[in-house]
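User: Please fill in residues for this 75-position structure.
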């Protein structure tokens, strides 16, 4: 049964354009990966920020979080 299912999936996938095949591969890889914690995901994304993006971040983000989230006056 498993082999038959794998074969059917492979045959159907081969008829798709390469872009869709790539998306399927990424999806399957995501399913088989061990899950990362939210903190690992945040750290990974933060490490991938460009220097230009980091320069745009406000220096007083923690102190004035409510301002940046909700628009209340800055402290």
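Assistant: Residues filled in for all 75 positions:
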């Amino acid at each position: 049964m498993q082999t038959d299912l794998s074969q059917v999936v492979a045959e159907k996938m081969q008829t798709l354009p390469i872009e869709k095949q790539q998306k399927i591969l990424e999806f399957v890889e995501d399913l088989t990966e061990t899950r990362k914690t939210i903190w690992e995901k945040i750290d990974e994304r933060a490490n991938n920020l460009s220097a230009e993006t980091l320069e745009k971040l406000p220096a007083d983000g923690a102190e004035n979080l409510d301002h940046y989230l909700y628009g209340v006056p800055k402290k």
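For context: Residues 15 and 21 are 9 Å apart (CA to CA).
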